[in-house]
Amino acid sequence: MTRPKHDADTPTPPEVCFDEQAAVEYCEQVRWGDTPLCPHCQQADVYKMKDRETGTRNKRFLWRCRRCDKHYSVRWGTVLQGSGIQLSTWCRALWESSRAPHGLSPQQLSRCLGITHRSAKFVIERVTQMQIFAENERM
Questions:
Q1: Residue 7 main-chain phi, psi, to 5 deg
Q2: Which of 17, 25, 100, 105 gives 20 to 30 Å between its CA and that of 56?
């Protein structure tokens, strides 16, 4: 996703809205802090899976548990699980929805994020689920 041009009065979205690696690292930090846990066995003996040739993280940003030998990502066990939409796009959708006083229509979100109308409806549905969950957690 390319950065849109903004005038001086419009706030610029944060970097996590445009860079997939930055979005994944941000979500990992928010979810796990400095101690990532395996969602399958709740152990901290995990490692980032990396490409053997380049040594960089694989493109799915997977983790593997040394104890149960299962792999997972920061999406596992969240409303983002099973979504083919990039985390940077999710971050941008959350940022845009937090700025919209009356919510966003699928058409607005579709144009803003450069995704299909169907994907925009899916994103709005999941964002609503996140908001309901957050409200219930506060009670």
A1: -85, 175
A2: 17
Number of domains the chain contains: 1
Amino acid letter for position 31 = R
H or E segment to which residue 122 belongs: helix 117-138
**Which neighbouring-strand residues pair with 47?**
64
**β-pairing, 46-48 with 71-72?**
unpaired
> What are the tens digits of pLDDT across the range 54-98?
999 988 999 999 999 999 999 999 989 989 999 999 999 999 988
- The C-alpha atoms of residue 16 and residue 28 are separated, in whole angstroms, by 12
3-state secondary structure of 43: coil
Rounded to whole angstroms, how far apart are CA atoms 102 and 100? Answer: 6
- Considering the entire predicted model, what is its pTM? 0.84
